[in-house]
Structures are given as structure tokens and as C-alpha cells.
């Protein structure tokens, strides 16, 4: 992959010692110069993401929602999750052979619904006067045949992810983080990388922008390493995603009103790249690791920045799901990986 550009130290840095055994070093892409020094990615990232137990799925992370919630937005998300659960149950009833594949996803949606409902009723009673009436569940119409059902479910998930991204603009920052996380999970289910350009956020000096930038530096560097082990269409996919991370990095730099965090000369990567499969595993890990940074950024005060963050988290989860499918890997079915239990319930408002 071409690593030209003044800020491509991350993408063009030398491979860290942990990525290739001594004596077996594979040359990096021609335009990736060797630079000394490495730093641990753990020191820069907010934490790892996770994936679902199916090759066409990826997992989700979440953050705590604040006490002031937009009821109608929350009801929309609750309704969506109820409908997804009903649709998955209908799919299992239509074709029992799908149960093993669908049960982990269904469990995720049930977890999402449980957490959303915790935010909906903080001792508030009937909220119909606030636009808070939750309609009964409604299953989407499904076609016949296992393959057609799976395609329909991916489309339903994609629409749900798009709705959560739009919700992030309307919700207060704390709730926006939770909705962005759920949307990322659903984008992983759909495994869709959107063709439209990502949202263009306003300038911001928020510390969370710097953390997202640090995560992108690692991703750009990591894709520069793994690209040398891929060929054909997979190498082209890696090239496309590498360029996407470079563009994302540049956008984050452009919206900062302070000096942006610089890329390190190199990073210790979580996977040794010795084959096409391990390259795909590394790519999935890189995508997983940018998701927590964007979920955190979804709590920004500016609505356009929240949408940008939600969109970015969704794209990363979709890419992760695709790489894991290529690597033939599954993962722990945790709906909210690495998240403290206290972050899954709303903080009570005074008087509640």
C-alpha cells in the first residue's frame, strides 16, 4: 500500500518486533519506510471491541447514558429492538435450521432492549404524555428459504443501524453513546460498509477527538503492515480500508482546534502477521479497537459530531465483521464487551 503523505508515520512505520518472528521478516510494501521505535497501542486506545459468534456478524460496545433523555428518541430505539426480536423469532419459526445461527444475535438484541428499558423508566411511571407510548412488537415480513431469510435479516439490521445513527443527532450526549454503540453492533450484523461519504463534523477541541485520532493512527499503521501478506481482492479491500482510515485520520485532524496527537514511529500489534488469515485477524482487531473511541466521541455536545462518531463506529464494525468472515473466526457473544456494569444503567435524577 502506498504510504505517502506527511502524516503517514503510522501507516508507513516499520513493522513492530511482535508482528514477524526473527529471521522470517517479510518485506513491507515498497512505500512503507522503516522507522525506529514502538509504543504500545494499549497506551493510546480506549479498549478493544468485540464480535458476535457468527462470521457475518460483529459485536458492539456501549457507554453509559446520562440522566436527561429524549423520550421519543428512546421509544423509537426500544420499538426498533422489539421489532428486531420479533423478526428474529419469526425467522426461527419459519426455518428451524437457522436457530443456531440466529440465537447469538437474538441474545444481543434482547440485551439491547433490556438496557434501553432501564433508561426509559427511571421511576417515571406512565410517560405517554411525553410521547413515550411503546407500541407492541411487529415482525418484518420474511421471504421463504434460509438464504433469502438471512439476506432479509441483514437488510433489517442495516436499516436499524441507520436509524440509530440518525438518533445520535437528536439524543443527549450520554444516550447518544449508547445508541451509537447499538448501531455499530447492528452494522456488524448487517456487515454493510456504506457507500455514502461520512458525516462532516464541526471543529472541536474535545479530548475524545484526540483519542479517536490516536486509534486511527494505529489503524493506518496496522493496515500498512498487513497489506504485504494479502493478494488479489483481499489486498484491494485492505487498500480501500487503509485509505478510509487515512481519510478518517485527516478529518479528525481538521476538526481539532488544538495540536493533534502525533503518530508514533511504530506500534505493537495484537496479531503476528505471517499469512493471509493472520492478516485478516489483525485487520479485524484494528477495526475493533477504533470502535470504543468513536462510541466515546458519540457523547460529544455537538449533534453533527455525534452523528459522525456513530457513523464511524458502524463502518468499523462492518469492516471488522468482513475481516472475521475472511479469517473464519468467531468471538465471544458479549453484547457490551468490556463495559462496567454500572455503565449499563442510567444514573438517577434528583428526587427519583
TrEMBL record:
Q: List where Low complexity composition bias occurs.
A: 13-31
Name recorded for this polypeptide: DUF4439 domain-containing protein
**One Pfam entry name:** DUF4439
Q: Which domain of life is it from?
A: Bacteria
This chain's source organism reads Actinomadura napierensis
Q: Where is this region: Disordered?
A: 1-35, 323-352
Domain DUF4439: start-end pairs? 209-340
Amino acid at each position: 500500500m502506498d504510504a505517502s503523505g506527511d502524516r503517514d508515520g503510522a501507516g508507513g512505520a516499520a513493522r513492530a518486533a511482535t508482528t514477524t518472528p526473527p529471521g522470517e521478516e517479510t518485506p513491507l510494501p515498497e512505500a512503507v519506510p522503516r522507522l525506529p521505535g514502538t509504543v504500545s497501542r494499549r497506551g493510546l486506545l480506549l479498549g478493544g471491541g468485540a464480535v458476535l459468534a457468527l462470521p457475518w456478524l460483529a459485536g458492539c460496545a456501549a457507554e453509559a447514558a446520562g440522566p436527561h433523555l429524549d423520550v421519543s428518541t428512546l421509544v423509537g430505539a426500544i420499538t426498533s429492538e422489539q421489532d428486531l426480536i420479533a423478526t428474529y423469532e419469526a425467522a426461527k419459526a419459519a426455518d428451524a435450521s437457522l436457530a443456531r445461527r440466529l440465537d447469538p444475535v437474538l441474545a444481543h438484541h434482547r440485551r439491547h432492549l433490556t438496557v434501553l428499558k432501564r433508561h426509559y423508566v427511571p421511576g417515571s411511571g406512565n410517560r405517554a404524555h411525553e410521547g413515550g407510548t411503546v407500541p407492541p412488537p411487529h415482525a418484518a415480513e420474511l421471504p421463504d428459504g434460509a438464504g433469502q431469510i438471512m439476506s432479509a435479516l441483514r437488510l433489517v439490521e442495516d436499516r436499524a443501524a441507520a436509524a440509530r445513527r440518525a438518533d445520535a443527532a437528536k439524543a443527549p450526549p450520554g444516550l447518544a453513546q449508547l445508541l451509537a454503540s447499538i448501531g455499530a453492533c447492528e452494522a456488524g450484523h448487517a456487515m454493510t460498509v456504506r457507500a455514502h461519504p461520512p458525516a462532516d463534523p464541526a471543529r472541536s477541541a474535545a479530548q475524545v477527538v484526540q483519542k479517536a485520532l490516536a486509534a486511527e493512527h494505529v489503524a493506518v499503521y496496522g493496515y500498512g503492515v498487513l497489506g504485504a501478506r494479502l493478494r488479489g481482492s483481499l489486498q484491494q479491500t485492505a487498500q480501500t480500508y487503509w485509505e478510509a482510515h487515512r481519510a478518517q485520520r485527516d478529518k479528525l485532524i481538521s476538526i481539532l482546534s488544538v495540536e493533534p496527537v502525533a503518530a508514533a514511529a511504530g506500534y505493537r500489534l495484537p496479531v503476528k502477521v505471517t499469512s493471509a488469515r493472520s492478516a485478516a485477524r489483525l485487520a479485524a482487531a484494528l477495526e475493533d479497537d477504533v470502535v470504543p473511541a468513536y462510541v466515546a466521541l458519540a457523547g460529544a455536545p455537538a449533534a453533527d459530531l455525534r452523528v459522525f462518531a456513530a457513523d464511524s463506529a458502524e463502518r468499523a464494525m462492518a469492516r471488522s465483521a468482513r475481516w472475521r468472515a475472511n479469517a473464519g473466526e468467531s468471538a465471544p457473544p458479549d453484547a457490551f464487551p468490556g463495559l462496567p456494569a454500572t455503565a449499563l444503567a442510567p444514573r438517577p435524577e434528583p428526587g427519583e
